[in-house]
Amino acid sequence: MGAGAWKLLWAPPSQPYYQPEGPFSEPFAKGFTKRLMFSSWRVVPKVVAAMVSYEAERRMIRSYETQPENSTGARARRGGRLQFAFSEGRLTGMPVLGLLYPCATLAERCDPLRLGREAAGRDAKTHAKRG
Question: What is the DSSP letter of 12?
C-alpha cells in the first residue's frame, strides 16, 4: 500500500499489449507482484482481503478529500460508485459488468494478442494473393 498499489484497480499485466498509462506506468507498478498466503483457517484470506480493500478505499478517499468524514451523512453524499438496477422494466448498468466480471472462457477464446496475430496472417495472405 505504501508504494502506491492502492491506486491500482487490479494488478498490472505482466505482458501488456500496449504502453501502460496512469498509475500503471509509475515505477512501483513495474515490479508489482501478487503474494499468495496459505492458512489452515478459512477466515484468514477473507479478513486479509477485507483489510487491504478497506485501506485502499481509505487512501483513495484521502487522495481527493482533505478532511474525509466517515458518517452516515457523508457516505450518503458520496453516493454509489456502480449500481445495477431496474429501470423501465430492464436492467441498467450491465454493460459495465463485462469490464468487471472475470470470465475464463472469454479469456481463453478471445486473447487479443493471438487474435491480432491471426488477423495479421490473414491480411498478409489476402494481400499476397492480390499482389
Answer: P
Determine the Cα–Cα distance for residues 14 and 68; give it in Å rounded to an integer: 35
Residue 86 falls in which region: left (phi positive, over 0), alpha (psi -120 to 50) or beta: beta
Global pTM reads 0.39
Q: If we measure between CA atoms, which residue out of 47, 12, 15, 42 comes closest to residue 27? A: 12
Where do we find the cell 479478513? Answer: 47
How far is residue 114's CA from residue 108's CA, in Å, rounded to a whole number? 10
Buried b (16+ CB within 10 A) or exposed e, 114-124: eeeeeeeeeee
pLDDT at residue 39 greater than cutoff 70: yes
pLDDT greater than 70 at residue 5: yes
Look up residue 121 and give its amino acid: G
